[in-house]
What does this fold into?
Amino acid sequence: MASVLSAVRGLGRSFALRTTIASLTALYIAFSLHLDSPMWAGTTVWIVAQSNRGMSLSKSRYRILGTATGAVVSIALLAAFPQEPGLFFLSLALWLGLCSVVATAQRNFRSYAAVLAGYTVAIVAFDAVADPTHVFDIAISRASYVVIGTVVEAVFTAILAPGSPELEVRQLLESYLDDAAKLSIGFLTADQTAYPTLHRFFSSAVHLERSAHYAAAASKEVRSRLGYVHASSVGSLVQLAAAQSLHRLMRPGIDDNVRVLATRTIPLLNAEASSRSLLDLADDVRAQLVREVTNGTALETLAALDRLRQLLIERAEARAGQVSFVQAHRSAPKVRYRFHVDWVGAWLNGIRAATAVFLSAVIWITTAWPAGAGFVSTVCIVCSLFATHSRPVIASVGLVKGTFCACIVAMLCNFVLIPRVSDFPLLALILAPFLFAAGKAMQHPRTAPLGISFNIFVWGLIDPQNAMRTNEVAFFNGSMSLLLGMICGGFVFALLFPIRPLIVRRRLAEAASRDLARIGRAPGSYSVGIWYTRMADRLTSQLETGADVPPETAATEFDAMMAILTLGEAAIRLNDILEHTPATSRPIKAVLACMARSKFSRLPAMSALAARRLFQQAGTIPLPESRDFYRGAVLLHVMADAAAVQRGAGCPSPLLAAA
It folds into this structure.
């Protein structure tokens, strides 16, 4: 643990030093070109700065795209409403609200591009409000600063950023598969201490996907093998769902052969077993399954064996994907990660952002505040940033603290230190310690909002120029507009449709149920990969809000979401059986129709009845012709068990309650 912390601290120092030098280099280039607002070049470096090359390159691309979009829209709005401030501010509020919707709905740096497209309009438009005829020149100027800052940061990161993108993904994938194994063993042995928390596992699924895409942006080799990472991720998710379902099916009366095979499975999960050894054991399970069918064993035992076999196959596929990635095999499978989109939350964020911007504009017009443009611009920036944060009110506290620190440091620099120097090296020497300290703060989760807001806003407060002369009144007006803008945005997000974790959890469950109904209507339109990755994202969001509900409720709700996960997978696989063996259609179609109509209260009984009918029908048909009938009966039995949990009839797992 000490070595890990030491490594993290080392990376934090490296990031802070590299980005400090890069931002001062960008500022020097802007000075040399005699640009009118060189501080934007330094600000851009800190905005796009990331800890590795892939993240930096990806963010830089989307920053340029977002800035260009915002510049074009700002020109269009000023051209459309040059003498109509009311319509201009209304259009600005609507545009920022729309960008907030898109930012909430998108992920990674696509979301960041939408944020930039929103507040760039305010920055460009308010700089040109005194002379709208020069709005095009100002837009080009702002774009130039962005390009300078982005290119400088990319060069420094490419040269000085430590680590290999491929090695980072390899380590994350290994850790992810290890977590999946420990969790599966925990379900098989009821050991509450043998595995990491569920939150860590599902969060790492999303983190692995994000990191792999960033690494692909920096490495052609990673990009060509990205499908193996996705395949391993999906395989591990299916493996965990099979283990959780098997945990419920292994009741006290279960056949001893199931327990023996489950015991043989544990060492293969614990060790770095090869895909071949896992598949060999899966063949043994299949052979036992055939023997149980021949002996007329109960359906419960067949279902448990089927889930165990599924666990082994998915583990083997996950390991095979990991090996193929490490050994640089080409022709990677095309598996895509699909995220959950909370459109209700996205539109609420849009309404909050639009309201805050329009309210700030009304305050500016009513009070005729000289620093009103800065006030409205700050509200635009803050609301855009809040749209991408799950807890904006909490984030606003860190942002305000960082901005307040930036005001104090800017006051010290503008009125005490900078007036005593006359050349760039001494200016850089003054700024560097403050930028470095805030850069280190950016690398720690608790202090990241403080460090980010400091390094973004301190540049505008100091406003370094080739010929500097600080106006005290303008400085204090600007500082006040910055702080009040942040507070205004925070208050609107706190008071207007406040984000309540319980409501967020309810929307997640409703979205999962709606998707389940869509699978019932058109199971062929979903793949197991799409279903599992989207549900993994929902489970991550649900677990993030678990601290806001009692542990028993959180465990029960998690069980219900995992049951929905199992129901969707079983329905998709039933559709494959339906297409291959049409004679199974009547009971399977009845269950799918029940799902399609969202009659989930009837689904346990309907699935159990359909399972018995298919099981009885399979007994009248010789093997191997009856294989699909048995397989369908097993999947329907698994659905009946999962549907009972989803409806609330089952008890939450003690493992989940403990986690």
Notes: The two ends are 22 Å apart (CA to CA). Residues 2-32 form the longest helix (31 residues). Residues 307 and 369 are 68 Å apart (CA to CA). The mean pLDDT is 84.
